[in-house]
Amino acid sequence: SIWGGLLHEAGVRRSSKGSCIFGCKWHQLIFAYGQTSSGKTYAMSGITEYAVADIYNYIEKHREREFVMKFSAIEIYNESVRDLLSEDSTPLRLLDDPERGTVIEKLIEETLRDWNHFTELIALCETQRQIGETTLNDASSRSHQILRLTIQSSALEFQGCDKSSSLVASVNFVDLAGSERVSQTNSAGTRLKEGSHINRSLLTLGTVIRKLRGRNGHIPFRDSKLTRILQSSLGGNARTAIICTMSPARSHVEQSRNTLLFASCAKEVVTNAQVNVVVSDKALVKQLEKEVSRLESELRNLSMSHPISDSTALLREKDLQIEMLKKEVEEVTRKLDYAQSRMKDMAQVVEDDVPHLRESMDLHYPKLSMDLHYPKLSARKTGDFENQQENLNVLSDGEDSIGSFHASQHSDGYSFSSDENLFQLPDLEKNLSIRSASMRLSIANMDALSNESNGLITNTHTHSNQTDLNPKDTWIDSNTPSPAANTANSGLTVVDNGDKKDLNLSSSELKEDKVYTLNHIANHETKSLDSYTNFVDHSQNVESSTRKETERNGLKGKAMEHKSLNLMADHEIIEKGTNSMITTKKFKDVGLDPMQVEGENHSNWPSEFKRLQKEIVELWDANNISLIHRTYFFLLFKGDPSDYIYMEVELRRLSYIKQTFSQGNQIVENGHTLTSTSSIKKLRRERRMLRKKIRRRLSKSERENMYLKWGLRLSSKHKRSQLVKGLWSDTKDMHRVGESAAIVAKLVGSVEPNQALKEMFGLNFAPRPTSKKSIGCTASMKHIC
Ligand SMILES: Nc1ncnc2c1ncn2[C@@H]1O[C@H](COP(=O)(O)OP(=O)(O)OP(=O)(O)O)[C@@H](O)[C@H]1O
User: Fold this and answer.
1) Which helix (H) or strand (E) is 71 found in, with range?
2) Spatial separation of the C-alpha atoms in residues 89 and 80, rounded to whole Å
3) Phi-psi region of 37 (alpha: psi -120 to 50; beta: other; left: phi over 0)
4) CB-count burial class (<10 Å; 0-12, 13-18, 19+) for 604
5) Which of 418, 423, 355, 359 shows the shortest CA–CA distance to 390?
6) pLDDT digits over 550-604, tens only?
7) Which GO terms describe its molecular function (predicted)?
8) Spatial separation of the C-alpha atoms in residues 728 and 741, rounded to whole Å
């Protein structure tokens, strides 16, 4: 076990994890010394076998390392070195190597395959060794035999390192020839010659041992082949064990005494076994370079399999999104709370002031009707009317403030908090939706009221100048006959700057003018604006100019103006006198979704739809709009005549964004600043997200079909990226656009043109209940918008 322990110790010391083991040599020497026939050969053969068996045992238990054992054998006979593993008995030369010490030239080193191989070689050595008969020993060893076992081991984790990175240990089993007295052996001739050589070499060995004990002066290693070969082992840099054999016979007492003298001398030699690092500087540098490159490649592989920067960026992005959504939820909750409290207040006011009206409103449109039809009443009673005027000052820049009055006045509970986000871009649709809804409700309520309340006044008002806004002038309640009441028999009365003119319009006249008004608005040059506030103002300005133009055209112009206000969901004053006899049909002509009528009557609607669609698709691309938004919109609006207004709104929104970005300006959206650059980044992120979803959402066959359809090679490593890059990128090819939409829809979830989605775009014109969820976009919907 001495060998196994030795190897283990050396292995542990050198195989620190993470670095290769440097090549080293660990020497072990065991030899038997004693007079002839005292049992040296007998002892050494046993020790050799047990030692090798022990080493094999150790190897078996240490599978984490790979061991290579090499075996060589020599004999020193009459001061000649001979290879016992070779048939050739030519003496071998001894060479001096600066690194390895004395080496035997051309010595055969057999790599041990297994135990049997070892025993075969031992047997060969016994056959080859010089043995002779003497008086004392029938089979006396006439030579010194040195069996050398070299064991090389390396940890399996360092496979691939060169030889210099493994551990090398060697052990020498030495069976010396016995010292003999000629008088005792009666040798003569050859035996005598052998005996003299044996004795001389043993004498040198004794001298070397003695010198080593004192460590003084010259040590005559080179005086004999034996000491020269064993120099590295005897010199102290090895573990050395000596077995001294003696004969118990009284006749051999002199020899025994000499042996004990040798043993006592040898015991005083202090050895200092060290692991000899045999790596040269050059090999060391080479080794370190290899180690560095190995670690570098490991690092590269690691970063490729786990892109740290990507993951970090993704996490940061997700955190931002979560933060943003939280803020939105808080904002919406706050608005709802405020709106609810306002509605309660208003309900209280209405209850106090016009109980009969409340009964009627609640009957048909609980709560919501309060806002829609009695904003001023509420405002006046709660002192908010002045606040509204202030808002108007903010919204309008002087003359044309028709829309601004409406912006703060008409909508559901939200709009009363006029300092909220009404003027930000994402609320455009919402406001339009709300306004349109309010218009519908206004008309519907008017119908209802005309039937049920008979004489109830519905108040809306158009102002071209906010300075005209005077509660006394504009406010008409059910108890105060309005000036319009005198003319209300004829139908609608439009009040503009206090001037009220009768409008007797047939529904066909109204319909005709819608197209003109819409186109006029759509084509009107947008002013350079920095924010959506200005965008709203601009819309109002356009309407105002439209209105002025139509005024010059007389009665029909009036109708156009009226329609334009309806279309823009603006706030015309429509008064219905207490005695008016307006028919339901006429009200509906005015109050119904104008685009519905528009679409129905548009003779060339299909081609018009295609034109709008194409223009929108191109603007989406130019503005780097979200692919999901494009998809939803594209799939939602497929050419129904009622789609016209949605498309018109989207077109205007996109034109505005394009113009703003082209001027280097930014847009505030959901409290976030949106620039041309940030839109591009957002779009890139979205494409990355879609790329990831391809594997998750589509089966293998679906993916392959899709790649083939898009002309992508299945063998390409980048086919996913190429596909995602191609989505929505060819705006000229509407077929490809449709395919893009279908793919995106599939990746993010199916899209049905249902009500919820229309609400998502804030374009639902239908009256909605006043539950919290129905007001505008929900947080998540907003996010998608
Ligand atoms: N421990 C032992 N038990 C039994 N027999 C032994 C023992 N030691 C030696 N012998 C026997 O003694 C005889 C001499 O032994 P061996 O050849 O090993 O002596 P030696 O010291 O090597 O002699 P030489 O120096 O002449 O080669 C052999 O026949 C051997 O079998």
Assistant:
1) strand 65-77
2) 10
3) left
4) exposed
5) 418
6) 444 443 333 333 333 333 333 333 333 333 333 333 333 333 343 444 444 556 8
7) ATP binding; microtubule binding; microtubule motor activity
8) 8
**pTM for the model:** 0.40
Mutation probe of ligand 1 site: the residue of 42, 199, 252 with most atoms within 8 A of C-beta: 42
> Any idea what the Cα angle at residue 680 is, between residues 674 and 684, rounded to 5°?
125
Residue (of 66, 65, 282, 25) closest to 167 by Cα position: 25
Answer yes or no: are the C-beta atoms of 414 and 546 closer than 8 Å: no
- State the pLDDT confidence band at 43, using cuts at 50, 70 and 90: very high
Q: Which residues does ligand 1 sit against, CB inside 6 Å?
A: 34, 36-42, 137, 139-141, 177-178, 245
- Provide the mean pLDDT of the chain: 65
Closest CA to 20 of 170, 155, 150: 155
pLDDT digits 0-9 by tens, 103-136:
898 899 999 999 999 999 999 998 888 777 776 6
Element (H, E) at 82: strand 80-83
**For the CA of 138, the nearest atom of ligand 1:** 29
Q: For the chain, list the domains and their CATH numbers.
A: 2-278 (3.40.850.10)
- Region 616-620: mean pLDDT is 93
CA distances from 402 to 394, 468, 538 (A): 13, 11, 11
Q: What's the gap in Å between 733 CA and the centre of ligand 1?
A: 103
DSSP string, 516-559: HHHHHHHHSPPPP-SSHHHHHHHHHHHHHHHHHHHHHTHHHHHH
